[in-house]
Specification:
Elements lengths: L23 E3 L23 E5 L6 E4 L6 E5 L4 E5 H6 L6 E2 L5 E3 L7 H14 L14 E9 L2 E3 L2 H15 L2 E11 L2 E11 L8 E13 L4 E9 L10 H8 L15 E6 L4 E5 L2 E7 L9 H8 L15 E5 L7 E6 L18 E5 L2 E9 L4 H17 L8 E5 L12 E5 L1
Parallel strand pairs: 8-13
Antiparallel strand pairs: 1-7, 2-5, 3-4, 3-6, 8-9, 10-11, 11-12, 12-13, 14-15, 15-20, 16-18, 16-19, 17-18, 17-21, 20-22, 21-22
């Protein structure tokens, strides 16, 4: 049985620090007949952050309202009572658990000094770049009993924490990109990240991408990190053990065939269950008029430019993908594009011999992308467009007019079920 009191309106949504352990005093002799085990507290995010109290009782007990306004319910043996941290910090003596007339009182925890938090912020910015390299993290800044948790992994010692890092290095060769670090509570620092991995034990070495945020809890007594909790952007349920998290990992093991060719460069800023947010660098395309998003009209014309039909008679290396783009939200005005090599300079490229082939630079920028496999049809692509639009609207993101279909495989040489397609907004 769980109870979660609602905090006063002026406390809702405030950032809250994780608490390692709280001193408890028994204020009545009747407590000698009851066994209490207040375990380590864990942080939960939401409109009211809660501590997780597990109370092992030899007899039932009642839980009194934080304001003293009556009984919230009964605790049986092994029940969990959710106690909001704002109540612990604001009302030092009002976490009453009654058994007869017994009363337990929680004392307030101190906060880290601003100087300590500033120092730890700078430390993380310098140290996290070594998370998966030979240097490794500076373990002197971590408690020996540091708690690590992500949706599918959990450790409660520094050795376990370091073992998890080394296991990821061995199996996945991760590339870690730090996006942002800032203080989010009196004893809490949060950083946002992107991690790209390849699973070395599978012959096709599937690439996996995760983005998310990490909450680092600080012990104010020692100035060391006592907790590291990861939240993945792709999940609704980030609690350990998350079956949703396991499935999110496994589905990225699927085999897709992508050509070993140059492609426009980008960084993944966020990966959700539906789409990725990417920041593309500028790139150059040769383009001509097409007929529809999934059509091939104009393909031979535009590839003729890179095969030598240009003012210098040069053959230009093939890149991927082939884009079809519409500049509005209809599919009536479509162009087909091939990507030119990354180091190409617009001023140095040969001119096309055909008037209907244009060379231009795409400015890049932020794009929402959904990946799918199979041979695309016009109806299926538009279904994916609606799926992305619904997800973006739900997440409060706006899009510009127009979209692109990226096709990575030659349909004459690739089985349909392993073909890679991407839809970009």
């Amino acid at each position: 049985m769980s109870h979660t009191p609602t905090p006063p309106p002026h406390h809702r949504g405030q950032p809250v620090a994780m608490v390692d352990s709280l001193p408890v005093r028994a204020l009545h002799p009747s407590f000698s007949s009851i066994k209490h085990d207040f375990m380590r507290a864990h942080l939960f995010l939401g409109s009211h952050c809660c501590l997780d109290w597990r109370v092992n009782l030899k007899a039932a007990a009642s839980v009194t309202n934080i304001h003293g306004g009556g009984c919230l319910g009964l605790l049986a043996k092994g029940d969990t009572y959710h106690c909001p941290l704002w109540a612990v910090k604001r009302y030092r003596n009002c976490i009453p658990i009654h058994a007869g007339v017994g009363l337990a009182v929680v004392e307030e925890e101190a906060n880290c000094s601003p100087e300590t938090m500033k120092e730890l912020l700078a430390f993380l910015e310098d140290d996290l770049v070594h998370l998966f390299d030979e240097t490794g993290i500076d373990k002197r800044r971590y408690e020996r009993n540091v708690e690590f948790r992500d949706p599918i992994t959990r450790h409660n010692t520094l050795d376990g924490y370091l073992f998890n890092i080394q296991m990821l290095r061995f199996l996945f060769s991760p590339i870690f990109e730090l996006q942002c670090v800032k203080q989010t509570g009196p004893n809490e620092i949060t950083f946002w990240w992107t991690m790209t991995m390849e699973f070395a034990l599978l012959p096709w070495r599937p690439q996996m991408i995760f983005t998310g945020r990490t909450l680092m809890g600080v012990n104010p007594k020692t100035g060391k990190f006592r907790s590291h909790v990861d939240y993945w952007d792709s999940l609704k349920n980030n609690d350990y053990f998350s079956f949703e998290g396991l499935m999110d990992l496994l589905k990225q093991f699927m085999y897709y065939k992508t050509p070993d060719l140059e492609t426009p460069k980008y960084k993944v800023l966020k990966r959700t269950a539906v789409y990725e947010v990417r920041n593309y660098e500028p790139f150059i395309v040769a383009e001509t008029e097409g007929d529809k998003l999934t059509g091939s009209k104009g393909f031979n014309t535009v590839t003729g430019y890179i095969f030598g039909r240009n003012s210098k008679g040069e053959k230009i290396p093939m890149s991927t993908p082939v884009f079809t783009e519409t500049i509005d939200n209809s599919t009536l005005d479509v162009c087909i594009q091939v990507v030119l090599p990354y180091r190409s300079q617009l001023s140095e490229l040969p001119m096309p011999l055909q008037d209907n082939v244009k060379i231009r630079q795409v400015s890049g920028g932020f794009m929402a992308v959904i990946k799918f496999s199979g041979s695309p049809t016009e109806g299926y692509v538009m279904e994916k467009e609606r799926e992305v639009q619904v997800a973006l609207t739900r997440d409060g993101l706006n899009t510009k007019n127009g979209f692109m279909l990226a096709r990575y495989n030659d349909p004459n040489q690739t089985s349909t079920f392993i073909m890679v397609q991407q839809f970009l907004l």
